[in-house]
Every structure is written in C-alpha cells, then in structure tokens.
Amino acid sequence: MDILTLFVIVPIITVIVLSFTKDLKQTRVVALIGMLVQFGMSVNLIFAYLKERSVNKDIMVFVKDYTWFESFNIHYIIGVDAVSVVMIALTSVVVLAGVFISWMVDDLPKEFFISLIVLSAGVFGFFISIDLFTMFVFFEIAVIPMYLLIGIWGSGPREFSAMKLTLMLMGASAVLSVGILGIYFNSNADGGNLTFNILEIAKVNIPEAAQNLFFPLTFIGFGVLGALFPFHTWSPSGHASAPTAVSMLHAGVLMKLGGYGIFRVAMYLLPVGAINWSDFFIVLSVIGVVYGAFGAIMQKDLKYINAYASVSHLGLVLFALLMMNKTAWNGAIIQSLSHGLLTALFFALIGMVYGRTHTRDIAKLGGLMKVLPFIGAVYVITGLAYLGLPGFSGFVAEMNIFVGAFQHDDTFHRVSTVLVVSSIVITAVYILRMIGKIMMGPLSNQDYNDLPKATWYEKTGLVLLMVPVVLIGIMPFGLGEMIKESLEPFLERLL
C-alpha cells in the first residue's frame, strides 16, 4: 500500500477498533495509539518527501492513480508537494494534541473519538487528493462530523450553532460543486477528454469567459470555510458552542481546507479568472482582517475573542494568496501552519481555564497566573506569538505576507496592505488586554485558590503544539525554502 493512502486507512482502522472498545480506558488508548501512528507517519512523510524531491522535480510526488468511475473519468489520484506535506503535518499534530486535551471526556467517549477521527480522515484525504471529485468527497467527509460534534458534545446554544454551521457550509458546498463541475466541463477545451485530474486540467486553456464565471464560485465555495467576509458568521458561533478539542480541529485544521482549496484549485486552474477577480476579493479579505480584529476587541467571552481573531488571521491567508507572488504565497502557507498551531493552543488553554473556573467571561477572571502557573505561562507565550513577536511562527508568516504585498507599487495594493498591517496594532490591543486581565493582578475570586494544576495529558497536548511554533520562529529558512520550491509551478500560471 502506498505511503499516502495510509493516512486515510489508519483513521478508518482506528475507528473500527474504537467501535469494539468496552470502557473509557480502552477508548482513550485506542484513539491515542491510532493518532500516534498517524503522527509518526507524518514525520516520516516529511523525510521521505525531502529525499524524493532531491531526485524528482515533478509538481507532485508519490503520485498514485486508481480508476474509480471510468465512465466519468473519475480517479482516486493522490500525490503531495511541500504545501500538502506541511498541512498533513499540521493536521497530525493538532489531532494528536486534541486527543490528549480530550482525555477526560466521559460523555459518549467512544462516539466522540470516532467522530473526531472521521473528521481527521476527511482532512487527510483532502490534502492528498489530486482529483477534484475525490477532493470534494473528502471535503464533505471532513465537514459532516462537525454537526454531531457540536450538536451532541457542545455547550450553550449548541443545536443552533451546529445547524447554522451545517447550513452555511452546505450552501458553500453547493456553490463549490457548481464551480468544480464548471471546471470539469471545460477541461476538454483543447480537444481532450473531460477530466477531474488537477494536473491534466492545468495543461488546458480554459476559456476566459468560463474562468470569469467559475472562479468566484470556486473561491467563495472554499472561502466560506476559510472565514471569507461576509460569509464568516458561522465560525464564531460554532467555536463558542464546540467542545475544546473540536474547536481546536475546527480552527486549527478544518478551516485550512478553505485556503488550501483556493490555492490548489481556484487559483491554479483558473489563473485568468484569479487575475480579473483579484481586486474584488482583496477588498473582502481586507475587510475580514480588520473587521475580525475589531470584533475580537468587542468580545468578553474568551472563545468569541479567539474566534474573531481567527477570522482576522485567516483573512491574512486569503489576502496573501491574492497578492500572487512567491513571498506573499510563502507567507500564506506559513500563516496557515502558524495559525493552526496557535489557535489550537488558545482553544486548548481556554478549555482548561473554563473547565476549572466554569466561566469564559474575562470580567470574572483575574490573577490566574498565581494558581495556574504552567497554563498561565503558556497562555502568555501563545499570546505573544499570536501578535507576531519575533522568535515565533507568527512573525515569520506576517513578515512574508507584508513584504510580498508591498512588492505591488500601485495605490490600490499599497492602501490595502497598510490597512492589513494596521491589524497588528488592533491584535496587540486585544491580546495584551486579555492576558493582563485574566492572568495578571490580584486573584478575582478566592475560590480559585484551589484550582487543580495542569495534568500530564494537558501539558503534553500544549507542548506538542508549542514546540513547532518556536521551531518555525527560530529556524524558518528550511521550511520557507521547501515551500517556495513547490510554489513555482503555480506562480508560472499567473504570470
């Protein structure tokens, strides 16, 4: 069996074994072993990719092609480049950390972990797919479990949040399916056969009129999952009601499918449409970045603060992709990776604080550093990384994005870039206020004196997420060079 298909097979095997577990301990152990294997496979994939790339200069490596529906020329085609490898590594880290953070889930634990791992299987399948139909199938597999995870294990208005998320993402899927079918039915524009193969479609000169029609549909279809303004409203509601591990996967991994799909499908296969529509979507992404940052300032609930911050930082990814140059695109990929780790960290920390204090209202929290030193220290470090402090992944990502954006010397791009850069100041305001309010100063409630310290599994989950944030910050060059090499074929289509 090929190295990539295992990323789908291992979660399936884990789910099957989980269905036969009889108690909470067995469920935890099986879920942990399955995701540890997945994590080990992702580490192995990085080294295997670097070795293969040294001799193989194709756009994608480890390519396998299996016929699925021959009459429609639908194939199970898989392969990876550096961008895919990075996203797979991110997913494996966040899912493994999510298992540790969910160690004490005792309400239908078997069903919870099964839903969580099915979601991860969809994400892994999406990142390895080269066939548009197969990619769309995995896209749906990744999205569907969110309804159950929020609706069953969530809190607050969980039924409303789950339904809102589902309806908006279903609408996005409908729009996306039209865009994908539009690409498919124009894939024989040069006289070939209709195909869903991304690499084959990239060789076809799709008519400009078709690109102008189907690019915005494809961009919006993926963009809704990537928190594109004004279609982002499902995200804060979903985050606020979701259990901790689900929020981690939701923001840390699932929302990355949006930016990745725009990069891999919309901009690669419809480059003329991308150029013609870029100014319109730049305006939306700039609004999303600034609006998300101001929205975070206005919130009092810790989860809502992080949710709106997530909208702002994912807007940076879309903004960077629309800049269409190597530096900005490199920043977009690193920002996706950095945001995934940091937002998962924040949601894990918020879950730990809420689990002990039973409140997410910052007005009722204060002085927690004194009673929760480990959680408090990680909270401060995560906050500083999130606002782009040098030495962390956020700084590397944002510098690449801003430098790449400033390479455009026209007034429209310069003004857009200045507005986006201003979000750094807004981010600093809500991050420093949040840290100062809940961690520093006198203890807000004397009942908090007896709060339990961080457990071994909570510490393990936090360290798993924190280590790559620091490594990317202090050693960004290897990652940046690996990503840039894979961006060349995509940028050539836009020049």
TrEMBL record:
Pfam families for the chain: Proton_antipo_M
The protein, known as: NADH-quinone oxidoreductase subunit M
GO terms of molecular function: oxidoreductase activity
Limits of the NADH:quinone oxidoreductase/Mrp antiporter transmembrane domain: 130-415
Database matches in InterPro entries: NADH_Q_OxRdtase_chainM/4, NADH_UbQ_OxRdtase, ND/Mrp_TM
First-tier enzyme category under EC: oxidoreductase
PANTHER family with a match to the protein in the record: NADH-UBIQUINONE OXIDOREDUCTASE CHAIN 4, PROTON-TRANSLOCATING NADH-QUINONE OXIDOREDUCTASE, CHAIN M
Organism encoding this protein: Lutimonas vermicola
Its EC number(s): 1.6.5.-
Membrane topology recorded in Swiss-Prot or TrEMBL: Multi-pass membrane protein
Subcellular location: Endomembrane system; Membrane
Bilayer-crossing regions: 6-22, 29-50, 74-100, 112-130, 136-153, 165-185, 213-232, 253-274, 280-298, 305-324, 336-355, 367-392, 412-432, 461-479
Keyword Glycosyltransferase tagged: no
Keyword vocabulary terms for this entry: Membrane, Oxidoreductase, Transmembrane, Transmembrane helix
Family to which the UniProt record says this protein belongs: Belongs to the complex I subunit 4 family.
